[in-house]
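INFO  loader      accepted 1 record
INFO  loader      residues=164
INFO  predictor   begin
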Amino acid sequence: MIAAVLAAAAVAPAQVLVVSETRGFHHDSIPAAKAMIGSLGYRTAYVEARQLTVGRLRHARAIVFLNTSGELRLDAAGRRRLLAFVRGGGGFVGTHSAAATFQRWRAFRRMLGAEFLTHAPPGPGSVALGHFPATWSDPNQRRLIADGLRWATQPSRARSVAAP
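INFO  predictor   done
INFO  writer      dumping tokens
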């Protein structure tokens, strides 16, 4: 019985928490991005940043900041939980404008490894890696996101999430 439960858990799709909340620029591509992420075969839960609770993080393998922007509603304890999740080996994937999120939170920028400053206006033929709805049906974008999530959700990424 125990072996059957463990075997089933080993093949169960990974839990991915997707945050697409915006407090700055809101991309029209977010519905298309959600649809593409949802089609990748993960157990996907769409949440706001403030819903990154200990219970949800305990069952998640990765968090995706999907075209997020601005200063999201996440209190100090939630910020500590997010950092602890990633430091403990939990996966984190930030798409397109994730670097335009929490710009006043230095620890987030360090974790992400980037900071949004500006970009040129989109022009003809530009794909902007997530800016436009059509980007999310492009096979190259799908492969990029799928490969990133596959890496971020690897079962060997040992981690623990503790209450602050």
